[in-house]
User: What shape does this take?
Amino acid sequence: MADEPLSQKEIEDRLRELPGWAFEDDRIIRTYRLGSHFAASALVAHIAGVQDELNHHSDLTLGYNTVRVSVNTHSAGDAVTGADFELAERVEALAPSHGAS
Assistant: This one.
């Protein structure tokens, strides 16, 4: 069963627990800045592993030393759900080990 879309208030409340994340264009997003292109690439690879584990995938944009994560749930009509926040929390746990800010 697909996750149910969260209300705007639920999204805002949950974003308070994830500093640096924002709600934009029906997605939750964050951009991480890292010390090098290699570190940014490594973070992308680790995020991809978590996404496969959760069977929930975000859009990832790799820049020179940045990684942008943008996620919503396609099966819920491209709305934000609890699954998106679960992925965001897992990404947050990975990011410090890669020197992200």
Remarks:
- The helical segments are 8-15, 37-54, 82-94.
- The radius of gyration is 13 Å.
- The chain has three helices and four strands.
- Residues 49 and 55 are 10 Å apart (CA to CA).
